[in-house]
Amino acid sequence: MSAVTDDLTPAPTASRRGIWSWMLFDWAAQPFHTLIITFVFAPYFAGQVAANPVDGQSDWAFAATIGGLLIAFLAPVLGALSDATGPRKPWIFGFSAIAAVAVFSLWFVTPDPDPANITLALVAFVVALIGFEFAAIFNNAMMPGLVGRDKLGSLSGNAWALGYAGGLICLIAMLVLMVASPDSGKTLVGLDPILGLDPAQLEGDRASGPLTAIWFVIFIVPLFLFTPDTARRIGVKNAVSKGLRELIDTIRTLPRHPSLFAFLGSSMFYRDALNGLYTFGGIYAVGVLGWSTIQLGVFGILASVTGIFGSIAGGWLDTRLGTKRVVTLTILALIAASALVISTTETHVLFVAVAEGSSVPDIMFYCAGALIGAAGGALQAASRPLLVDQVEHPERMGEAFGLYALSGKATAFLAPLGIYIFTELSGSQRIGITPILILFVVGLLLLIPVRSRT
């Protein structure tokens, strides 16, 4: 694997059906991020399962740290093994099965601060996180074999947009049909929850687990049926030694390729910051602004809608401004959004006091969510093509995305660990999430020497 080259030979193109089936992976997997990590289950855990929101933020951060470390350790190794053996689908199938079972089990997490109940929630979350992340790694590695480089930006952007749309549909379905206020017993539109879900036991919130699992299992099927896969190269036994040998060689020679090295370092920080913003934004809104699940749902709908347009715009701008410029501009936008989040409480906006009972803090937090959705979608859409630009040998794309996952997870513990430490030391959720802003700034600075083909 090497840094940016001038080889622009188009990759073999897949059929339209094969491309759409590949894109459906993002549609299938996004509800895990939308419902579980950001807008429904994580805030439910912090507000209703943990002893208090501060402990909930701390516990969730600790679990995310453990999951991130495990992914960081295993991702490049498994990516190299996948490259050596060839096909990606067996890996996707195995980790998808693990993810589906683990996320379904979140249904059994009741609103009870019992230690066994909290442990169930955190263990199931970590296992589901590992399953979804590894399935995504191997799915991403298939991307360069579907279209030529000139279409990678739009392919990645459209796939992210489709993913946001899937998450949005699931979130709306939950708010309209499942999640109900414990006080009124009604959903966002005044309906009784379907399937006899009990508002008093917050079964609507807990249903986010089974809904995510069922949605994922259904919509991942076309990938296995219609998307072309890499041919088998060697057996697993020989692949272990070959894959590990090539991985060690790649890591050893990384400093010789400054653009690739800088990109992996930059993405290590800015993706960690983005994941931290997604993971703890909802928890912050519950604890600091006192938001309900329904308010968070509206926030999530807004962020998902802007995320769809941001992802499409990111793919469109990729061929007009250049991939690196898109990544740079979106990081700047996310720095501004993070500052707005940190400076907003029930009584302050941008650290300036507002009248008691004012709706301005809520409005500004909604604005921050819209910006996070748009910029985050564009950033993730542009990051995949920018990585492809750094890779010389397409047959080692799994290893590349394994290293990409490593760069995203090697320091993935920094955001949750920083939030955990700051929250524990300060006893404040507001101070606790400030490490996110620092990570974005570091990622932006490390991006400076990165090159791209567009």
Largest sheet: 2 strands, antiparallel
Q: What is the spatial order of strands in the main beta sheet?
A: 1-2
Element-level helix/strand string:
HHHHHHHHHHHHEEHHHHH
Number of strands: 2
Report helical residue fraction. over 70%
Give me the Rg, rounded: 21 Å
CA-to-CA gap between the ends? Answer: 20 Å
Rounded mean pLDDT score: 82
Strand content: under 5%
Global shape: globular
Poorly predicted spans = 1-11
Alpha plus pi helix count: 17
Output the structural class: mainly alpha
Give a short overview:
This protein has 454 residues and is mainly alpha-helical.
Fold and architecture overview:
- The chain is mostly helical.
- Helices cover 71% and strands 1% of the residues.
- It has 17 helices and 2 strands.
- A two-stranded antiparallel ribbon has the order 1-2.
- A hairpin with a 2-residue loop joins strand 1 (348-349) and strand 2.
- Helix 5 packs antiparallel against helix 14 (397-409) and helix 10 packs parallel to helix 12 (323-342).
- The longest helix is centred in the first third of the chain and has 33 residues, at 53-85.
- It is globular and about 60 Å long.
- The model is unreliable at 1-11 (pLDDT under 50).
Characteristic key phrases:
454 residues, mainly alpha, 17 helices, 2 strands, disordered N terminus
Topology readout:
Layout: H1 16-39, H2 41-49, H3 53-85, H4 89-104, H5 115-141, H6 152-177, H7 203-206, H8 208-226, H9 236-253, H10 258-288, H11 293-318, H12 323-342, E1 348-349, E2 352-353, H13 360-388, H14 397-409, H15 414-426, H16 429-432, H17 435-446
Antiparallel strand pairs: 1-2
Helix pairs in contact: 1-5, 1-6, 1-8, 1-10, 2-3, 2-10, 3-5, 3-9, 3-10, 3-14, 3-15, 4-5, 4-8, 5-14, 6-11, 6-13, 10-12, 10-13, 10-14, 10-17, 11-13, 12-13, 12-17
